[in-house]
């Protein structure tokens, strides 16, 4: 069964968002997404300084089963990415809500308003 932390917000494309305060948001893929993809072998995340738009493709995730697009869950500018994923893409499988975070985005305070809470996400993830 997938884990869905109550403290995070979620997109319908299976990304999670953590409000770090000060207009910064940490982003990753959900436990459900990593289960569907299988063993991840490559992550292409946007560079720091790149502007992203909610719903637009901003990266690629490749597993032994398939390649999948990474979608931006909110509008903003990438201020940091998890460069450790380059050598350790398995972090997305092992710890998707911790060590497997993908990027930090700077955005306005209302950026996450369109995202789902854990209960709503659980319904689309069929947990």
Please, could you describe this protein's structure?
This protein has helices spanning about 30-35, 90-95, 120-125, and strands spanning about 10, 15-20, 25-30, 40-45, 50, 55-65, 65-70, 75-80, 105. The longest helix has 8 residues, at about 120-125. It has a single domain (about 10-110), classed as OB fold (Dihydrolipoamide Acetyltransferase, E2P) (Beta Barrel), CATH 2.40.50.100. Strands 1-2-3-9-8-5 form a six-stranded antiparallel sheet. Strands 4-6-7 form a three-stranded antiparallel sheet, with no helix packed on it. The chain contains three helices and nine strands; from the N terminus they run E-E-E-H-E-E-E-E-E-H-E-H. It is α+β, with helices and mostly antiparallel strands. The model has no long low-confidence stretch (mean pLDDT about 95).
What descriptive keywords fit this protein?
127 residues, OB fold (Dihydrolipoamide Acetyltransferase, E2P), three-stranded antiparallel β-sheet, 3 helices, six-stranded antiparallel β-sheet, 35% strand, single chain, 15% helix
Topology:
Blueprint: E1 9-10, E2 15-21, E3 24-29, H1 31-37, E4 40-44, E5 51-52, E6 57-63, E7 67-71, E8 76-81, H2 91-94, E9 103-106, H3 118-125
Antiparallel strand pairs: 1-2, 2-3, 3-9, 4-6, 5-8, 6-7, 8-9
């Amino acid at each position: 069964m997938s884990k869905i932390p109550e403290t995070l917000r979620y997109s319908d494309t299976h990304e999670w968002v953590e409000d770090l305060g000060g207009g910064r948001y940490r982003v990753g893929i959900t436990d459900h997404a990593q289960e569907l993809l299988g063993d991840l072998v490559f992550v292409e995340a946007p560079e720091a300084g790149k502007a992203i738009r909610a719903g637009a493709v901003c990266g690629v995730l490749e597993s032994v089963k398939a390649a999948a697009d990474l979608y931006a869950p909110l509008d903003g500018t990438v201020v940091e990415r998890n460069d450790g994923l380059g050598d350790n893409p398995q972090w997305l499988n092992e710890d998707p809500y911790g060590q497997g975070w993908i990027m930090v985005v700077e955005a306005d305070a209302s950026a996450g308003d369109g995202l789902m809470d854990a209960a709503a996400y659980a319904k689309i993830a069929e947990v």
